[in-house]
Amino acid sequence: MSRFKYYLKEGFSSIFTHSLMSFTTVCVMIACLILMGSFVLISVNLNRTMNYLESQNQMMAFVDETYTEEQARALRPELLKNDNVRDAEFVSRRDAMESFLGKFEKNSIFDDVDYSVFRDRFIIYLKDIRLMSETQQELAAVGGIARVNAHLEISRGFTAVRRVLKIVSVAIVALLFLVSLFIMSNTVKLTTFNRRNEIAIVKMIGADNGFISWPFMVEGVILGLTGAMLAYLLQWSLYTAICTRIMTTAYVSFLKLLSFGQIALPLLVSFGAVGIFVGVFGSQIAIRNYLRV
Amino acid sequence: MIRFDHVYKSYENGTSALEDLSFTMEDGEFAFLVGPSGSGKSTVIKLLTGEISATDGTVIVNGYNMNEIRPSKLPKLRRTMGVIFQDFRLIDNKNVFDNIALAMWAVGAPHREIKERVNYVLGLVGLEDRQKDMPNELSGGEQQRVAIARALANNPKLIIADEPTGNIDPERSAELMTMLTKINELGTTMLVVTHEQNLVNQFAKRVIRIVNGRLAGDEKGWYIS
């Protein structure tokens, strides 16, 4: 039997020797990973929805009323030069009037309204809504632009929601990660305690720290990966079920959700990485006291 | 080779375990380390295996200066020696073969070499047909023979036996001691720590006697407490 086979054999046998504790560890890993995964997925989907909603948000840049339509149209390249302008859609005086009257279709009070009372304008779509205020000032400074209207309160609202979402997600994910690490470390610590005589014997026969700690690391990684894979499968079912429910609910149709296929691979890799990391470091924390002379 | 040169050892609680202890063992020698309980025999073993360091003086084991040895070098030192304990210290959930092979897995020996060597050392201690047995299926004497086989697994230069006959009957004790003398005749340095006067006198070997942490005698032959 090679050293590697020895590590595998010892790691596996230790899991079954402390089957109850191993089971508990896997269950806690599953719970923590599902909670972590859920928060990350909620955060990613809300972020995506926010991006969509932000992309729908727009500013209105009114052209100087002395400009002809051709002169007004010619301002578009100037507006697009701004780094934060995704698009600038020209709306002529006539179009603006039609759009305005369309809202009051059956009201005869507007029958005599002439298009000349409206201004040529651009609907400005932004790349980053957080820079709305700065962009408003920059566009207002473009020659030929008389005024720029923007809903700054919406921009501030989006920014605040994003900030809170980010802080809460990071805090919860970090907390759950530490809980997983602590539980894993305790499981391996129990194993090391039960095997302290064996550790003392192998140290006396010349085993180095690697030989002593590898079986525990194998045990940690197996438990971590088992928990991660089961959590992944459960997360898959849970996410698909919730998405199906949301998509068939009319009043939350503005939510832009990712399909599981779009997140399957990153989620699998992330869960696997967390499982391995928690297994390796949890076991190292547990065994470090036994590695001293 | 073992060299103790004016060694002192005091523990943190103030107990002085060794005081100015000096002795030397050349390669291939056989010696008994004797003395009453609390005389410092266990401290000598711990200094030899690197579990503790001397407070003052020099301890040299198989070319390693134990005062200067780094923790990362301790495994290498321990691979040059085999230690046999009074309570055998076999691993209960491993069979005889695996208990011995463990010492060779630890040093990364190849599979074929492990198989051959384990068979060889089990032959030396007369247990070649008990490879698959678990430790609890063996008598005390047999368990100690497995412990000897394990100590021999990596072909050490030095074997330290700490009260090896403490848990076995007198008849088996003499048999075991004969086995240790035969292993010594093959070239392995042998330091046997014991307080069994009769056994020591039966073999007429070098006797290093310590009392209250000091050298009280170092001569070949008899042990008179």
How would you describe this structure to a colleague?
The complex is a heterodimer of chains A (293) and B (225). Chain A is an alpha+beta fold and 293 residues long. Chain A is built from ten helices and four strands. Chain A has helices at 3-17, 19-56, 69-73, 76-80, 93-102, 132-140, 152-194, 196-204, 209-247, 260-287; strands spanning 58-63, 85-91, 121-126, 145-149. Chain A has a four-stranded antiparallel β-sheet with strand order 2-3-1-4. The two termini of chain A are 27 Å apart. In chain B, the strands form two sheets. In chain B, strands 6-7-8-3-9-10 form a six-stranded mixed β-sheet, sandwiched between helices. A four-stranded antiparallel β-sheet of chain B has the order 2-1-4-5, covered by helices on one side. With 225 residues, chain B is of the alpha/beta class. In chain B, 33% of the residues lie in helices and 27% in strands. Chain B contains seven helices and ten strands. The mean pLDDT of chain B is 91. Chain B has helices spanning 41-49, 74-78, 96-105, 111-124, 140-152, 170-185, 197-203; strands at residues 2-10, 16-25, 30-34, 56-61, 64-65, 81-84, 158-162, 189-194, 206-211, 214-220. Classes of the chains: A alpha+beta (293), B alpha/beta (225). At the A-B interface, α1 and α8 of A face α2 and α3 of B.
Provide a compact summary of the structure.
The complex is a heterodimer of chains A (293) and B (225). Chain A has 293 residues and is an alpha+beta fold.
